[in-house]
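Hi team,

Filling in the usual template for the complex we talked about on Friday. All components are listed, including any nucleic acid strands or ligand strings, so the model treats them as one assembly.

SUBMITTER: L.P.
PURPOSE: interface mapping
COMPONENTS: two
RESIDUES: 380
SEQUENCES:
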Amino acid sequence: MGTKGEGNRQRIIDAADGLFYRRGYNQTSFQDISDATGITRGNFYYYFKTKDEILDAVVNSRIADITAMLIECEAKTRDPRERLLMFSNMLDYKRDDVIQAGCPIGSLSSELAKDTTELREISRKTFVVLRNWIKQQFESLGISNADDLAMDLLAKMQGATVMACAFQDADFIQRSHQEIKDWINTKTSN
Amino acid sequence: MGTKGEGNRQRIIDAADGLFYRRGYNQTSFQDISDATGITRGNFYYYFKTKDEILDAVVNSRIADITAMLIECEAKTRDPRERLLMFSNMLDYKRDDVIQAGCPIGSLSSELAKDTTELREISRKTFVVLRNWIKQQFESLGISNADDLAMDLLAKMQGATVMACAFQDADFIQRSHQEIKDWINTKTSN
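RESULT (copied from the run log):
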């Protein structure tokens, strides 16, 4: 695929990513993505035959972004505790989006849990990446129940997000974030 | 409205409630509800003109069920701590549903956060009832930040639900439930 083709493909993925997040997967049509990109539906099918294919590409693109963010985080500090605290900051700098439309990963997962097994498994992939990374951080501190703590941290962040979004409450995100940081400090202290 | 009319209306609400939960609000059509009830679409419009009206009726029906459950809980014990523990047991006896389709209240809220303000506000109503009831329990123990604790408890339950559903992990629900009970005991101890 040439440069133009690659550019169009990425434009479709980026537009779909935003629409899936702000409207939901099921509420986004091929036409919506076509309108958002200006790429006609005819051309569109050259890149993606089905919406499921777009979903897969969107999830892979999110995983690439998250992986880049985690690598950046690892480059900034060798201290796993600092890395986990840095990861939790996502709650803060994504606050406005979260209050408006929830967590992109969590809300997609909740939506597609109600769908076919295949879509459910696609949407789970992002959580798998995060869970493994968090687990590694706890493990490198010699903590034995690292995977449990990874699930706990993700659950805390998801819970804060769902409730902050339900009540559109920015203060709740902030307070929850502080409690999550306290929890990370407690769990990682010797 | 006669008895038959009331019966049909309730059948529509019950069918819609189940479909909204298992498939999602946006993925449920008038036709789906008609098929599930055997009530023709023509008759259907006699009871509800729009899907938003059905949503409102479903949310009110859920609130009625939850209120009945909370009243039953209050009748069983006068001890607010026991009541809160009893409330948290919902995680356990709804476990199979939760793993399959998430929390009915949380997943509807997450879905409709992406919709119009009006639908968002309808879906929030159930959380408001729960938040107020939990707050009252903490308040009656003389706890000053009762509303914060109510939000925290709901966030913990939502977080456990989102992650258990994402990974279809019954053990995680069980472990989280135990930690939530420990948290309730800590917060309500003198």
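MY TAKE: The first helix of chain A runs from residue 3 to 23. The CA atoms of residues 15 and 36 of chain A lie 6 Å apart.

Thanks, L.
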